[in-house]
Amino acid sequence: MRLLVAALVSTLTLAAQTPRLTEVQERRLANGVRVLLAEHRGLPAFHATLVFRGGWAEEPTAGASEHLARALYGATWPEDVEPTRAATDLESLLKQEEGLLEALRLERLRQRPDPAGAPAKTDLESRLEAVQARLRAQFASSPLADLYAARGGRQAAEATADALLAHMELPSDAFETWCRTEAQRLRILQLSRFSQIRATLAAELRAQGTQGPALLRGAALPGHPYGRDLADHLPALEALRRTDLQALARRTLRPDHLMVILIGGLDLASALPLLERHLGRLPVPPEGEDALLPEIPADLGDRRVQAALASAPSLLCGWRIPARRHPDHLALRLAAELLGGGPAARLESRLVRQKALAVQVELRMDLPGARLPGLVVIGAKPTDGHSLAELEGALHGEVLRLQQDPIPHEEWLRALAQLEADHIRVLDHPAALARALGLAWAEGGDWRLLDSEAQRLRTLTPESVQAAARAWLRPSHRTTVLLEPVVGGPLNPQEAALTRVLQGLASLRLEDPDRRERMVAEGLRQLRMLTPEERQRTLKLLEAQLAPEKR
Amino acid sequence: MRALLLAGLAAGFTLQAQAAPQGFTLPNGLRVVHLEDHAHPVVRIRLHVKLEPRDVPPGRQGLPLLAERMFLHSDAADLKAEAFDRLLGDAGIRLVSRSAPDVLEWRLAARSRDQDRALGLLADRLLRTVFDPMVLEVQRLACWQDLQQTDAPPYQRLEAALLEGPGTRPTLATLGAITLDDLLAFRARVLRPDRALLLIHGDMGLEQVKRLVFLSLGPWTGQEIPSAAPPGMTAASQAAGPDPLRVAVTSPGLRIQALLPPPDGLSPEVVALLSRLLPGDSTLLPASLAWRPEGLLATLDAGSETSEAAAWTLLMDRLERIRQRGFTAQDLERAGTAWAAARSLDSLDAEAQLDRALAQAMGRGAMAERMKDLTLDSLNAALRAWLEPSRSRRGVAAAPGRATP
Q1: Fewer CB within 10 Å of terminal CB in chain A, N or C?
Q2: Residue among A45, A170, A208 minimizing CB distance to B154
Q3: What is the ipTM of this complex?
Q4: Do residue B341 and residue A171 have CB atoms under 8 angstroms apart?
């Protein structure tokens, strides 16, 4: 009876603790590929996530990671992964396409006004169309050509600041095919749809323009890859060639930078030999130099940026915080939960409901990544009748309260309960679990961080969280972006006039079309930070520098 | 077709590794579907209420959306909205709601040990929320600001606008016209146990579910429906929006999109196969086709040198090629095999299992038995009907002043 009672008590006690990640098994293949496998016997499917450490923050060419996510892992076309399909004809056509696209790009940038130049552009376009038509004829023409879709699978990929992640789900009986296909994908690196993907990405970036969060990152993390906005590098992105991307992929998508995370109806005993046979035989390129990333001191001073960008006023406030491995990082996560962890958290409760200062408020940690020091960002939109300054003051007040006033016990328990519940939901969802494990490895160097952080939460105290908040959420670590609406909308006549004048001035002073485009983009960004009256005065001054017929 | 049947049977056997859905109906008419899964100590609950066009009176577009916000921000069970959210937070329960012209839905995820509290709080939110006129005014404006999505990227705004039906798109005027009486009448009309479907997935046994549901939602009865309910929306009364929809961008490029909603009367099996066959078809290049629950979304990105007219011609030409080409018997078989194999992927995602259980309970789920009876002729006939150009809703993201046809 006593044994029964003891067993019952220990069971109840265990039930009250956070579940542990005991089901994950780790192996390393001969070429350095790391494998994590969580067996869920009886499941008829499996989830696989490939994590390549080192995301867009480390890419030597802007946009490479995003391109690889879309062109390499957006789909599984037979011509990209089956050696018989990687025929000479296809490769030859892809090279011809690359050459013609580059020639066309340079021709358009030169914008030759003389009549002799015009037919060359049309001829290039015609030749490109012909090559692309022949290329399309090479692509598998039957519907359901995507190999994974034909087997009932699905896939997606994302490029984060710290990693490239490719997610796939397939029936368990397709596992060997998957191993073989993924090895081939990395061997061949065909990227047959590269040109279309590049065009789509450039179009999306052009259409979206400058965004508030990118402005905040650039101001808070100046000169650091984390502060980079891909939209600022459009000329480089459009100049990126398929062969460049292939060369880059061979250097960076290395087996020793790869972790394969498998969750589902697989068992290690039968999966490991297949992994070793296919992914384990990927060649390891010579060791290159690790990207040297600059240090950014957190204490850069309180920075403020005002910009006329948005359609409605909004406030973005970011603080530089340490990387995931830092001892204070977990305490800051709990601080973030107390501030912005849902409808009952402080910011929404006080700023939205009680004081009706904000229409909405949102908090995000570890922007854009956590392998290096990043940002915790609070975004808020004021309600009608309240100014950004008012909202900013209230926000700072809440941060000060967190730092100074004792944290009520029920609020503390609520934050812990929410984080623990979130953790359990991640454990319950293979895709979320694989992603979380992969990011723990890419950001923190150890996949076990996912588990150890969840266990350590209960050891934190309110005082330690407040100490971390005082150390890191201070004015000298802060950058604030105040976004005001552009009068008349983002396409108002003043904006159009400024663009025209800047383009005119750029064409007078710069030969290189890429540099002209960068100058115009940078000029517009600087001018949007002025008031409408200042912009108008600046417009007049700039117009005066142009010849009358060009104004 | 034989291979399809075998694949379907194989999928059926493997799917037996997962517990089959169990259903029951409460005396008040609430239908319940239970999927038992003890892999992790988590429970997921979904309450689904299907809306009909007649539920939204003319000139009141946005009524479901505003009702959803009222539930979220109003007091419930003698608790202030904030206190209610604190109770949810104390137990780490996540409760989210969703509205669309054809659905109101609440989704809940909780640890197993909090299942009683979770279902109790859901019941409080549904049955004991008090709509306050002051809350209505605040939420009306917040709703409009949300809908505007003014800071979302233009391509995202274009897609969102296209996916809304033209007659269901709320405007400032229609949101402004909604009164408290409209909301109360809407609530009485739609939030009835006999119109709702409750789905529960996770770490609970069937008897446990029955007990809990009976205790929390057993007392649920429909409210009296106001006698002078105004006529609902009909297809004729739904005003069409501008065609094409236009979203302004600052860049010189051009994106055109056409949404093709599925024709009425298509079987779930045909939808399941066409949604697999069409996206990714290389005949479409340089255009692309994506599957959305609202229909097929065709997209073409063109450079500054291409006119809008030329872009539309190219896109429509690609769609027409597929429409005329049709599919072969081999395509049908491959799609059927892919569909059967894809069903196993639901085992990886509780929400996907709930989606499938919901579709089956609503009669919208594709069934293996009906799939094997599908013929090539019926598939191609459905294809031709679906890609009929006159049915498309069109949208353009371009710089203002760009040459239009």
Answers
A1: N
A2: A208
A3: 0.89
A4: yes
Q: What is the distance between the alpha carbons of residues A371 and A155, in angstroms, rounded to a whole number?
A: 25
Query: Out of B85, B110, B344, whose CB is closest to A344?
Result: B85
Give B 265-324 residues with CB within 8 A of chain A. 276-278, 280-283, 285-286, 301, 303
Which residue's entry shows tokens 């995301």? A55
Contact with chain A for residue B352, Cβ under 8 A: no
C-beta of residue B260 within 8 angstroms of C-beta of residue B316: no
pLDDT tens per residue, range A475-507: 999 999 999 886 655 556 676 788 788 888 888
Is residue A9 predicted with pLDDT exceeding 50?
A: no
Interface contact flag, B280 A46, Cβ < 8 Å: no
Helix, strand, or coil (residue B219) = coil
A362 touches chain B (CB under 8 A): no
B347 to A204: CB separation less than 8 angstroms, yes or no: no
Q: Which residue of A has its CA nearest to B285?
A: A136
Q: Which residue among B41, B111, B250 sits closest to A491, beta carbon to beta carbon?
A: B250
> 10 Å Cβ neighbour count for A34?
19
CB atoms within 10 A of CB A8: 10
Q: Which residues have C-beta within 8 Å of that of residue A362, sequence separation ≥ 6?
A: A340, A378, A379, A380
- DSSP β-ladder status, B196-202 and B42-50: antiparallel
Cα A166 to Cα A155: distance, rounded to the nearest angstrom: 7
Q: What single DSSP character describes residue A68?
A: I
Identity of the residue in B248, B253, B350 whose CB atom sits nearest the CB atom of A206: B253
Query: Which of A187, A90, A200, A78 minimizes the C-alpha distance to B301?
Result: A200
CA R_g for chain A: 27
Residue type, B329: A
Between CA A43 and CA A171 the distance in angstroms is 9
Whether A70 contacts A157, CB under 8 Å: yes
Q: Token digits for A290?
A: 């690790």
Phi then psi for residue B136, to 5 deg, are -60, -45
Task: Decide if B141 touches A, using CB distance below 8 A.
Answer: yes
CA atoms of B23 and A141, how far apart (whole Å)? 44
Measured distance CA(B286)–CA(B309) in Å, rounded:
16
**Are the Cβ atoms of A151 and B282 closer than 8 angstroms?**
no
- Neighboring chain A residues of B255 at a CB cutoff of 8 Å: 203, 207
Q: Are the CB atoms for A380 and A395 separated by under 8 Å?
A: yes
Residue B94 main-chain phi, psi, to 5 deg:
-105, 120
Q: Walk along chain B (405 residues) and give the pLDDT tens digit of each residue.
A: 544 444 444 444 444 446 689 999 999 999 999 999 998 899 999 999 999 989 999 999 999 999 999 999 999 888 888 999 999 999 999 999 999 888 999 999 999 999 999 999 999 999 999 999 989 998 998 888 877 766 778 888 899 889 887 777 888 899 999 999 999 999 999 999 999 999 999 999 999 999 999 999 999 998 776 655 455 544 444 445 567 888 888 777 889 999 999 999 999 999 999 999 998 888 888 899 999 989 999 999 987 778 899 999 999 999 999 999 999 999 999 999 999 999 999 999 999 999 999 999 998 899 999 999 999 999 999 999 999 989 899 999 988 766 454
Alpha-carbon Rg for chain B in angstroms: 23
Q: Which of residues 107-136 of B touch A (CB under 8 A)?
A: 109-111, 113
Tokens 């130049």 belong to residue: A117
Distance from CA of A209 to the nearest CA of B (A): 7
Nearest one of A476, A478, A472, A469 to A334, comparing CA atoms: A469
Cβ-Cβ pairs closer than 8 A, A with B, add up to 202
Find out whether B386 and B30 touch, Cβ atoms under 8 Å: no
Which residue in the block uniquely carries the two structure tokens 């689904």?
Answer: B48
Give the nearest partner residue to A359 out of B15, B142, B339, using CB atoms: B142
User: Phi then psi for B330, rounded to 5 degrees?
Assistant: -65, -40
